[in-house]
UniProtKB/TrEMBL annotation, chain A:
<dbReference type="InterPro" id="IPR002888">
    <property type="entry name" value="2Fe-2S-bd"/>
</dbReference>
<dbReference type="Pfam" id="PF20256">
    <property type="entry name" value="MoCoBD_2"/>
</dbReference>
<dbReference type="Pfam" id="PF00111">
    <property type="entry name" value="Fer2"/>
</dbReference>
<dbReference type="InterPro" id="IPR036884">
    <property type="entry name" value="2Fe-2S-bd_dom_sf"/>
</dbReference>
<comment type="similarity">
    <text>Belongs to the xanthine dehydrogenase family.</text>
</comment>
<dbReference type="GO" id="GO:0016491">
    <property type="term" value="F:oxidoreductase activity"/>
</dbReference>
<dbReference type="InterPro" id="IPR012675">
    <property type="entry name" value="Beta-grasp_dom_sf"/>
</dbReference>
<dbReference type="InterPro" id="IPR046867">
    <property type="entry name" value="AldOxase/xan_DH_MoCoBD2"/>
</dbReference>
<dbReference type="InterPro" id="IPR006058">
    <property type="entry name" value="2Fe2S_fd_BS"/>
</dbReference>
UniProtKB/TrEMBL annotation, chain B:
<dbReference type="InterPro" id="IPR002346">
    <property type="entry name" value="Mopterin_DH_FAD-bd"/>
</dbReference>
<dbReference type="GO" id="GO:0071949">
    <property type="term" value="F:FAD binding"/>
</dbReference>
<protein>
    <submittedName>
        <fullName>Oxidoreductase</fullName>
    </submittedName>
</protein>
<dbReference type="InterPro" id="IPR016166">
    <property type="entry name" value="FAD-bd_PCMH"/>
</dbReference>
<dbReference type="InterPro" id="IPR051312">
    <property type="entry name" value="Diverse_Substr_Oxidored"/>
</dbReference>
<dbReference type="InterPro" id="IPR005107">
    <property type="entry name" value="CO_DH_flav_C"/>
</dbReference>
<dbReference type="GO" id="GO:0016491">
    <property type="term" value="F:oxidoreductase activity"/>
</dbReference>
<feature type="domain" description="FAD-binding PCMH-type">
    <location>
        <begin position="1"/>
        <end position="201"/>
    </location>
</feature>
<dbReference type="InterPro" id="IPR036683">
    <property type="entry name" value="CO_DH_flav_C_dom_sf"/>
</dbReference>
Length: 837, 302
């Protein structure tokens, strides 16, 4: 078949059933267009066909016969430079698709309207077919507007906000999904179709993925794997694998007395939903673990006061039951791994991971290899959010298949696998009570939280209430409700969003009942000095001072403004080292960390350039390799705070060593904070530092009371995380945190079929992440004081920027309508039902 | 089994006859194998205007074209608006009128490959499981709402469709309550196009969809309305709704109320009379009447 790709006439071989995106990626090696959903919902696969943007995943290859195709690699357009300059990207996986569409739109717009910036709604409508999980929408708006206004016509590279921006924008950056070695096979995973069963036999498979107990405990659990030269053949082989099960009784709804998910002697095998170790917990029932009460403060006092208040019907007692749906991580790059065993028997894993170093450790354990015989590489990672930690299932499958087939094997999860089994923030139910004293101070707090992490345990929703509102007595009890469903896991600010959803709305209730300004009340209760500064900023916002009286409106559309505070631990990897080597003219920095879209590479580059006074082309940061010196995981908001100071230390050592002589090598360390850490020794490279990062979000919504839609119009995010390493990158992180928080508040809900136990939100239409049209106008404000004790002066902000967002939306809806939402997400049906009461 | 929930072949009733491929945006997403390509049938593309002012739209005309065409926008604004608001720009660029009318439903269970009435099974897992996005009108064994927004708009315009070898049929006759399929054409029957009667003098029209997210989302309910108002009263009313039943539906009770002089909200509320909600779709009663109310107000304001 003849096509012209990027101006070059080509003869390609293809099967009638191939789609254009597969022919371009696998046939021609043009991997700029990504196959992220394969159902036309995300736009990552967009290419121009005779100038018109098309979803390459739904385009039969034969449809481009004789046509002119432009892929991201072949585009040359001012929009590209605009994206780089305005940081219209984070992980970059969705970016080539956005850029293709934006280029076509900008040309059309300028032809019709001249060189003027289009209104926001026009840009949103043009980009409606694109999804960005990092939430880089504010940057995209700015980039498209500037390009349409002609700001980027004048050629020449702008100073990009992140160093790899152009590589990502032009589709040249290679992600794990894009790797293709000579002779590489495609792997596919065979998954359990039953929620609980013993596997009696498997046939037709190439690798066995079951544990010693031969038991599956959720629909979708990996059972076996197969590999073949093409994806289509691999899927056909997988369908032909025969698994015979002996079904076991299963528990799906979490009601007490159900058949045990884990037998008494199997409980130690239950995975943890938490980033850290499994918390100790007793089992109060076959499928109810807890309570875990360790982080209570004067718990008995709190309990006594609450019980007395309840008994006497004390009007100062407030509270209620709140719920939150499970949220799927939904990184745009699915879990992907290319595994290869070399002639020495070393294992090479090229994978989409947030933890190259830890993944290598786990792989060494699993295959019983010395640590230095496992090499994990993650040059570019298309988002993680907590879902890509350690030795994940696709890597196990790929490595096992590679060993059996004696060839490199790539395993890429489908969007359906990703959404079902790729990780989720567990759903939760919170029962909260709050008592104030005669002076309106917090007298007692009670939180009982039931985490639903599937078959995983160790929920910490209630426990996190230790972090807020001073030293008032509080009884915090965490439970795990177990079911035969896929394990939940850590997700950006684990456990905090559901807690704050309940807590911050209850605080709002207290303020409302007392007739007190909600910010003023928080100011009184909150001992945290950094957040005090944020309150000062928030209460002066015109949107706040001009907010309507709660419940005062009666029209169809009602506006409201809500506030929520948030807190997050400061985490750091104290063992971080950065090695600098002078290679000719260039200073090369190496450490075993990775850039998942947060900008780690760019932060390191900026520090080196500043300290050594070097132009861009004389600094190169090579990260994403486990073989380098120890570096942090990209989780727990710790990467920048760990790597930043170590990079600076290395640069200074290089200077002190006498400058940039070719071949010189120094190692910089992340020196201890002035006051040390809260944790006596690091666990998994993690220390908890002193001080809490703080946030205050103010959100303005418009509620359509007729059709049940809530539109967040504007969000102000105030962040107290100390010194900001890079203004633009930090802002992008915080904007993304807000967009994900909006998704959590209004749209996202992972649904499990109550009969079969299978996840039914398996595509990006049924699992609804926010699109560009759902993105409010965002303003970020940084409070940089208060972190002088921290080496580097600043801590992470990826998590604190998202944790309170949903609660601020809830409070805004209450302000607009007088109705308080209790259940997440606040779907149209819930809003309509709530308002009709 | 590669995908966790693939318990039956997704893609619908197995048939020996190969399906037609138009834009492919529905067919390929369902991962069917072989097809008969319609894309070289250029005679099925485009809008032809008849001397009486009616329009014939070829089945292969893209949705983008329907949204863009100036004359169509002037003559049949609710159809053009429906086309402009459904799906996404990339989808609209290739998806066709015929494919839109004959696409399969979007029930999450059906798409995830659960066995059900729609693919040879004998149950409705949504009814037994999560039916929140299901129907609120009708009570057939399958609860998947009909997906086609354009069918709903064509219904409001009293359009006909032309099927090869069968001539012109009312658009409504394409659809029925049959739980095993989403349209009633036999395998191998080719849809040639649709024909809209000439617009009525003075008619105004509008389209409204209710969704959670702002764009690219399937409507929870949608409605199209055409009105002619003369001397302060409604003399013609055509109201259709989608997202609520196994087929796109007309709402004669609303039309009658309007013609009888009922205020908009009151007329819209009549839509509730034919609702028979599932326990989980009760909210759709209010959503449907709200959507109808909005579309009527919008048509009058336009
Ligand atoms: C994110 C997203 C949102 C969407 N939202 C909406 C929405 O709100 N409303 C809506 O209506 N749609 C929506 N769609 C669906 C989209 O409109 C359909 O996929 C599209 O209209 C199908 O047209 P096609 O030409 O690509 O059909 P194809 O995939 O080519 O065909 C669809 C079916 O029709 C048959 N067929 C096609 N043409 C003929 C013919 N001439 N004669 C006989 N049989 C034929 C095919 O065999 C096939 O079974 C959405 C899609 C996506 C991805
Ligand atoms: S991969 Fe094509 S739209 Fe998502
Ligand atoms: S930058 Fe858009 S998905 Fe990461």
């Amino acid at each position: 078949m003849k096509i012209t790709v990027n101006g070059i006439p080509l003869e390609v071989e293809c099967d009638r059933a191939d789609t254009a995106v597969d022919v371009l990626r696998d046939g021609l090696g043009l991997t700029g267009a990504k196959a992220a959903c394969r159902t036309g919902a995300c736009g990552a696969c967009t290419v121009l066909v005779d100038g018109t943007p098309n979803a390459g995943c739904l385009l039969p290859a034969t449809a481009v016969e004789g046509r002119e195709v432009i892929t991201p690699e072949g585009l040359e357009h001012p929009v590209q430079r605009a994206f780089a300059a305005h940081d219209g990207l984070q992980c970059g996986y969705c970016t080539p698709g956005f850029v293709m569409e934006a280029a076509a739109f900008a040309d059309r717009w300028r032809a019709e309207h001249g060189d003027v910036a289009p209104p926001r709604a026009e840009i949103a409508a043009a980009l409606a077919g694109h999804l960005c999980r990092c939430g880089a929408y504010e940057g995209v708006f700015a980039a498209v507007a500037a390009a349409c206004a002609g700001d980027f016509d004048g050629g020449g590279p702008p100073e990009p906000a992140r160093v790899e921006a152009m590589a990502k924008i032009t589709g040249r950056a290679r992600y794990s999904t894009d790797i293709r070695h000579e002779g590489q096979l495609e792997g596919a995973i065979v998954r359990s179709s039953l929620p609980h069963a013993r596997v009696v036999s498997i046939s037709g498979h190439q690798a066995d993925l079951l544990g010693e107990d031969r038991t599956v405990r959720y629909v979708g659990q990996p059972v076996a794997a197969v590999a073949a030269p093409t994806r289509r053949e691999a899927l056909a082989l997988a369908r032909a694998v025969e698994v015979r099960y002996a079904p076991l009784p299963h528990a799906l709804d979490g009601t007490p007395g159900g058949p045990p998910v884990w037998g008494p002697d199997e409980r130690a095998n239950a995975p943890s939903t938490s980033e850290s170790l499994c918390l100790p917990g007793r089992w109060s029932d076959a499928n109810l673990r807890g309570p875990f009460t360790f982080l209570s403060r004067r718990g008995r006092t709190a309990e006594r006061r609450l019980a007395a208040a309840r008994e006497s019907g004390d009007p100062r007692l407030t509270g209620g039951t709140f719920t939150a749906a499970a949220q799927s991580h939904t990184a745009m790059e699915p879990h992907a791994c290319v595994a290869r065993w070399d002639e020495r028997g070393d294992l090479h894993l090229q994978m989409s991971t947030q933890t190259v170093a830890m993944t290598a450790e786990h792989a060494a354990e699993r295959w019983n290899l010395p640590r230095d015989r496992v090499h994990v590489a993650a040059e570019h990672v298309g988002g993680g959010f907590g879902g890509k930690m350690g030795l994940t299932g696709e890597a196990v499958a790929a490595a096992e298949l590679a060993r059996v087939r004696k060839a490199p094997v790539r395993v890429v999860l489908s969007r359906a696998e990703e959404l079902a089994c790729g990780g989720n923030r567990p759903g939760a139910r919170m029962e909260i009570s709050m008592l104030t004293d005669d002076d309106g101070r917090l007298a007692a707090l009670g939180v009982d939280a039931y985490g639903r992490g599937g078959l995983a345990v160790s929920s910490m929703v209630a426990s996190l209430a230790r972090m807020v509102y001073g030293r008032a007595p509080r009884r915090l009890r965490d439970f795990d409700v177990l079911t035969n469903t896929p394990p939940g896991g850590p997700f950006r600010g684990p456990f905090a969003p559901p807690l704050l959803w309940a807590l911050e709305q209850t605080v709002d209730d207290v303020a409302h009942r007392r007739g007190e300004d909600p910010i003023a009340l928080r100011r009184r209760w909150d001992g945290n000095r950094k957040r005090q500064a944020l309150y000062g900023w928030a209460e002066r916002l015109p949107a706040w001072t001009g907010r309507p009286a709660t419940g005062s409106q009666t029209g169809r559309y009602r506006r409201g403004v809500g506030v929520a505070a948030g807190a997050w631990q400061y985490m750091v990897d104290p063992a971080t080292e950065v090695e600098l080597t002078v290679e000719g003219d260039v200073v090369v920095a190496r450490t075993a960390t990775q850039d998942i879209g947060t900008g780690t590479r760019s932060v390191m580059t900026a520090i080196l350039r500043e300290e050594l006074d070097l132009p861009a082309e004389r600094v190169r940061v090579e990260i994403g390799m486990s073989d380098a010196r120890h570096g942090p995981m990209s989780t727990g908001s710790r990467a920048t705070a760990s790597v930043g100071p170590a990079t600076r230390d290395a640069a200074r050592r290089l200077r002190d060593a006498g400058g940039l002589a070719d071949g010189r090598r120094v190692v910089g360390r992340r020196r201890m904070d002035r006051l040390g850490y809260l944790t006596p020794f690091p666990v998994h490279g993690n220390a908890i530092g002193r001080g809490l990062a703080g946030s205050v979000h103010v959100t303005e919504v418009e509620v359509d009371t007729l059709l049940g839609r809530i539109r967040p119009l504007r969000v102000w995010g105030g962040i107290a995380a100390g010194r900001i390493y890079s203004e633009r990158l930090a802002r992008s992180q915080c904007e993304g945190g807000i967009v994900q928080g909006i998704g959590y508040a209004l749209h996202e809900e992972r649904l499990v079929d109550p009969v079969s136990g299978a996840v039914i939100t398996t595509n990006l239409e049924d699992y609804r992440i926010p699109g560009i049209g759902d993105c409010p106008e965002i303003e970020i404000h940084f409070e940089q004081e208060g972190w002088d004790h921290v080496n580097g002066g600043g801590v992470g902000l990826g998590e604190v920027s998202t944790v309170g967002v949903a609660a601020s939306v809830g409070n805004a809806v209450h302000n607009a309508t007088g109705w308080r939402p209790h259940d997440l997400p606040i779907r149209p049906d819930r809003l309509l039902e709530g308002l009709s009461r | 089994m590669t995908e966790p929930t693939r318990v039956a072949a997704a893609g619908g009733t197995v048939s020996a006859v190969l399906p037609f491929l138009a834009g492919g945006t529905d067919l390929i997403a369902r991962a069917a194998g072989e097809w008969i390509d319609l894309r070289d049938r250029t005679e099925l593309t485009g809008i032809a205007w008849q001397p009486d002012g009616s329009a014939r739209i070829g089945a292969l005309t893209t949705i983008a074209e329907l949204a863009r065409d100036q004359r169509l926008r002037a003559a049949y604004p609710a159809l053009a608006a429906t086309a402009a608001e459904l799906a996404t720009p990339q989808i609209r660029a290739v998806a066709t009128l015929g494919g839109n009318l004959l696409q399969r439903n979007r029930c999450a269970y059906f798409r995830a490959g659960f066995a059900c009435h729609q693919n040879g099974g004998a149950c409705c897992p949504a009814r037994e499981g999560i039916a929140r996005y299901g129907t609120v009108i009708g009570s057939g064994p399958c609860v998947a709402p009909h997906p086609s927004s354009l069918a709903m708009a064509l219904l409001a315009y009293d359009a006909t469709v032309e099927v090869e070898g069968r001539g012109h049929l009312p658009v409504a006759s394409l659809y029925g309550e049959d739980p095993t399929r989403d349209h009633l054409l036999a395998p191998g029957e080719l849809l040639l196009g649709a024909e809209l009667p000439p617009p009525v003098a003075g008619e105004r029209a509008a389209y409204v969809r209710a969704t959670g997210r702002v764009q690219a989302e399937w409507p929870l309910a949608e409605a199209a309305a055409r009105l002619v108002v003369a001397g302060g009263s409604v003399v013609l009313a055509a109201v259709a709704a989608g997202g609520v039943a196994r087929t796109p539906v007309r709402l004669p009770e609303v039309e009658t109320a309007l013609l009888a002089g009922a205020p908009i909200a009151e007329a819209a509320a009549r839509a509730a009379t034919r609702c028979a909600p599932l326990p989980e779709t009760r909210y759709k009663v209010a959503l449907l009447t709200g959507t109808v109310e909005h579309v009527l107000a919008k048509a009058i304001a336009d």
